[in-house]
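Lab channel / #folding
Pinned by the channel admin:
"Please post every new chain as: sequence first, then the structure tokens as a reply. Keep commentary short and put observations after the output so the thread stays searchable."

First post following the new format, from NK:
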Amino acid sequence: MAGILARAITHQIKPLKFLKPVADKAFGILNTLVIWVILPTVVFVSISRYSLIELAIMGNAFVMAFFTMGVCFVASVAVSRICGDDRKTMVAISLNSAFQNVTFLGLPVIYAFFDVRGLNGLGPAALYAIGISVPHLVLGVMLAATAVRKKITVGSVIENIITFPAAFALIVALLFVAFSAPLPTVAREFFDAYLTKPFFGLMLLLVGYQMPIASPRKYVKDITMVSLMRFIIGPLVTYGLILALGLSLQTDITPRPSLVQSIMPPGFFNMMLAWNYKLDLKMYSAIIFYTTLLSLFIVLPITYMLIF
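Reply from TO:
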């Protein structure tokens, strides 16, 4: 809410619009800090504290993320085709239906639900987030380029993956685990005690500022379709996988964090794609803004009551 308020004050109130360049610059720096420092640190510390056996057990979260994303993507494309949407609308629906905000918003929520209560949530949540984020980088760029009929190269796709800091941090953390070189206890305790709360606070502040407020009137159908995929199809598929894998919500480590991650709203990387490829920013803004509010104030509380 603080982030949304900061954006509204600097972008909407005429006497204060002179602050807009300052705010944009400050939050641009914060975005760089989150991508290059905060997210890699969270992923590295969350993964490197576990053993190889524990990570193998938590690997269910990665599987659930990947499969759920695939189902939502295929289903959204099919529904959009049936509705007769044009290419750009279909890309917007599929991107926002399949790729949710599992990092900037999902990880802080997981921390608040689980880790502050002494439950292990960030480990499986980080694996779930990587299972969404890496395909998001690849397919996101490909779909956005397809929407404007722009050619893409294999090199550009590989570059997007290699230069994604959180993915690199995951690889390094897995090497630490594979060679039985756990993070020193003092470093882990320092992160838990002094860095997690300010890190996640800054991430949530950025989430709010990155959500431009747009009128929903023109995009009610699109918002409804994405909400259906994000808040009904996604969690139902995840829960079905939990049952199929024989996991327990109460005793296993991965099911509850995975369910919470599955109901996150669309990711803000979609806005960046829309900006870079000159797509309909108002559509993306409306979808992300209103589904985020719906997720935080309706779907998330209901999920919390169901899983605890």
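NK: The chain has a mean pLDDT of 90.
TO: also worth noting, The CA atoms of residues 50 and 202 lie 26 Å apart.
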